[in-house]
Write a structure and sequence with these properties.
The complex is a heterodimer. By secondary structure, chain A is of the alpha/beta class. Helices cover about 50% and strands about 10% of the residues of chain A. The N and C termini of chain A lie far apart (about 65 Å). The relative contact order of chain A is 0.15. Chain B has a single domain, classed as MetI-like fold (Orthogonal Bundle), CATH 1.10.3720. Classes of the chains: A alpha/beta, B mainly alpha. Chains A and B meet through helix 4 and helix 19 of A and helix 3 of B.
């Protein structure tokens, strides 16, 4: 203020003023101060942007492109909201999200893998968005599986970005060379065709069964299609499903190295021509196309003719974290924006995901025959945490140990499943 | 003093130096503190970056730290529950035994190969320096590359099995067999680690004066006698350092095993490090993972103490 005065009254020298002159002067210029401060407040609110930070682990160029496109569209439509994508490696996404929430600096949205959503929700960092999603027209049309993965009772903790699952990829040329006209539909056919296609060094079928979630995930379509459950591993359906895998490995139709193959490595086997068929998800379509292999995609083989394949659901969900209400609101605005059918279809296509919204998924299937088997399986597809809920991770760990024990011959199918079932039972008792 | 000054004034061509002012009280204070200020950075560094994380990990191992309690921040103390739970798991004991086998075999072979190579390179021959540089490649190459390469080598239809096939030995899916997976990772780790042993032992050997060998030769000592009575004893300090560093490096190996087998098949090739990672970041039980980490630290400390005791004898 003292600096202002000489400017406003250049003729007057400040030091000639008595000390209380300033105070007396004040009433005359108060309007100016009020006006300017009001203007300043208005200006800052008008210019203030809400930043929505989205943490994710997407690395596939198509997925990044999809995110960037959506960001551009959204920021164009909402100039007051800025979207900021932060990449975090897959293994660290959960712990980093938690850490950020623990120090009260949560990201606005975390793209959490669907089996983990309920697990994370249990810690209380996620916002219940049931009231908002109820207003989305796409929510009513969402498949039951993806819906279940984000729902706990009446509470909803996320909106699926899109879904993926598993189906059978086959190399058309290798099938015709072996005199097979159609891809296998049942387990018996699968065994037979896989054996026919096996011509060293080419294996008939590739699976991914490493010491992590991927092996449980690849086993689930077999277990669930047969009516089995991870929570009831000693029952006949589970034994039959695991026996099928053991038979496939024992007969040499599947490489024994599959216990060390992650899904990308499994994909390399197919692309490199070392496997005639593989159990794989739609995210691999882009890479297989690029390799120039003439291939087709068929639904997962079922135990007996006429049965429906039940596949596990993959895919991430937009999960809003509790925090600044303004940011929460902006985040929901973003999610709603993405839920527009046309945008959703575009995003899912660049992601190579199946939309979790039926009407959109059906359109995708019609436009792209390779996606059709995945779309058809969506109706019966299940969310993984339907078995074990928030403890799915631990249930899965027990199950995968049994799978690996049985297929490497460390234990018989019965013994391996029995010890896993016992472990799962103590888990259930503890919690 | 007076005398000295007197001589100086008499002899010196340089103008006399002003006598230093008497030490001020403040200066004395500074003089006492100065040495501490020099070590201050390292003390702060140690406390902040080494002591704090270790203590934090230690306290975490006595807390119920899972996803739920971690976010709410209360993480109640639960005594030895994490340790109890850890010790009652079969996979932990398997991982502990695996870690010991992994460390012992790796060090044994790395050291032997490194030592024999160092002896060999004592001779003079053409291209010696080029070969030394090439031998260091495994140590320089990123572990990631080595791990994927060995994974490919041990594939069921990989080069190792093709070689075995020539000799009429049936191929095995090495890394997919419960008993062999760990062996596969050990072979890879030996390959990665032997250059480290070699280069340190070699530089130690280069420092041994030739005269000692000449004297021994005149006394009629054969080659192995010279190795065991001259080279080995003189190399003892180097050996101890190599073994100690090697042990520390090996006990905490993580990436190699994680990439090659992921601790599988069926958890048979888990090391403590990979197991701790699984418990911490896959099951999100941070407390128990911290307990396993504490066991790793104790293991490294006890192995090194054991080596020091051996050294004393």
């Amino acid at each position: 203020m003292r600096n202002d005065l000489p400017l406003k009254h250049p003729m007057r020298k400040p030091h000639t003023m008595p000390p209380n002159h300033l105070l007396r002067k004040f009433p005359r210029c108060w309007k100016f101060f009020v006006c300017s401060s009001v203007a300043a407040v208005c200006l800052t609110t008008a210019r203030s942007e809400t930043t929505v930070e989205i943490v994710h682990y997407f690395t596939v160029p198509g997925q990044i492109q999809g995110l960037e496109d959506i960001q551009k569209d959204f920021e164009g439509a909402n100039p007051d909201i800025k979207i900021k994508f932060t990449y975090i490696p897959f293994n660290e996404l959960l712990s980093r999200t938690m850490q950020m929430a623990a120090v009260h600096k949560p990201p606005a949205i975390s793209c959490i893998d669907n089996p983990d959503v309920r697990h994370v929700a249990k810690s209380g960092v996620l916002k219940d968005i049931s009231a908002s999603v109820a207003k989305f027209p796409t929510w009513q049309d969402t498949y039951p599986g993806p819906k279940a993965s984000v729902t706990e009772g009446t509470k909803v903790y996320g909106v699926p970005i899109g879904s993926n699952s598993l189906a059978l990829f086959y190399n058309k040329k290798m099938l015709t060379d072996a005199g097979v006209t159609d891809p296998p539909k049942t387990w018996d056919e699968l065994k037979e065709v896989a054996a026919k296609l096996t011509k060293p060094p080419v294996y008939g079928l590739a699976l991914s069964a490493p010491n992590d979630e991927q092996s449980t995930w690849q086993f689930e379509p077999f277990l669930w299609s047969n009516g089995g459950s991870l929570l009831d591993l000693t029952a006949a359906p589970a034994k039959e499903a695991l026996q099928l895998w053991v038979d496939l490995l024992k007969s040499g139709s599947v490489s024994k190295d599959c216990v060390n193959w992650s899904q990308p490595e499994e994909g390399d086997q197919f692309i490199g021509g070392q496997a005639a068929m593989m159990v794989m998800g739609p995210w691999m379509l882009g890479q297989v196309h690029k390799s120039g292999i003439d291939f087709g995609v068929a639904p997962m083989p079922v135990p007996k003719e006429g049965m429906k394949p039940v596949v596990p659901l993959g895919g991430e969900c937009w999960c809003v974290l509790k925090g600044d209400p303004k940011v929460e609101e902006a985040s929901l605005k973003f999610i709603e924006f993405v839920q527009d059918s046309a945008r959703l279809e575009k995003l899912c296509n660049t992601f190579n995901y199946i939309s979790s919204v039926r009407s959109v998924a059906v359109k995708q299937g019609q436009a792209n025959p390779e996606l059709q088997p995945f779309v058809l399986q969506m109706d019966t597809a299940r969310a993984r945490p339907e078995e074990g809920g928030a403890f799915y991770t631990e249930v899965s760990l027990a199950a995968r140990t049994a799978i690996q024990q049985a297929i490497t011959g460390q234990a018989t199918v019965d013994a391996a499943l029995a010890s896993a079932a016992a472990k799962i039972k103590t888990l259930a008792a503890k919690k | 003093m007076k005398q000295l000054e007197a001589t100086r004034t008499r002899v010196s061509l340089v103008p006399p130096v002003e006598p230093r002012p008497l030490p001020h009280r403040k200066a004395a204070w500074w003089r006492a503190l100065a040495p501490y200020s020099f070590i201050l950075p390292i003390v702060v560094f140690t406390l902040l970056l080494l002591a704090y994380p270790m203590l934090y990990s230690l306290t975490l191992s006595f807390r119920d730290a899972t996803v739920d309690t971690f976010v709410s921040g209360d993480m109640p103390f639960n005594g030895f529950a994490n340790y109890q739970q850890t010790l009652s798991t079969g996979t932990f004991w398997q991982a502990l035994v695996n870690t010991i086998i992994f460390t012992f075999c790796s060090i044994l072979f790395q050291f032997t190969i490194g030592f024999l190579l160092a002896l060999f390179f004592q001779n003079r021959f053409p291209l010696k320096n080029v070969l030394i540089a090439l031998l260091l490649v495994p140590w320089i190459a990123p572990v990631l590359t080595a791990a994927y390469t060995f994974k490919g080598l041990f594939n069921e239809v990989g080069p190792v099995n093709q070689l075995a096939h020539w000799f009429g030995i049936p191929g095995l899916p090495w890394l997919a067999l419960p008993g062999f997976a760990l062996a596969g990772t050990i072979v890879a780790n030996i390959w990665i680690g032997f250059p480290f042993n070699f280069i340190l032992l070699y530089s130690g050997i280069c420092g041994i004066p030739q005269e000692i060998y000449e004297a021994a030769r005149i006394d009629g000592a054969g080659y192995w006698r010279r190795v065991s009575y001259i080279t080995l004893p003189i190399l003892k300090p180097v050996t101890v350092a190599v073994l100690m560093l090697g042990t520390i490096y090996t006990v905490k190996v993580f990436d190699l095993v994680w990439i090659m087998t992921g601790g599988g098949p069926a958890n048979t090739s888990h090391l403590l490090s990979t197991y701790a990672y699984q418990v911490g970041f896959s099951l999100l039980n941070f407390g128990q993972a911290a307990a396993i980490a504490t066991v790793i630290v104790l293991l490294i400390l006890s192995l090194n103490l054991f080596q020091l005791l051996l050294q004393r004898k």
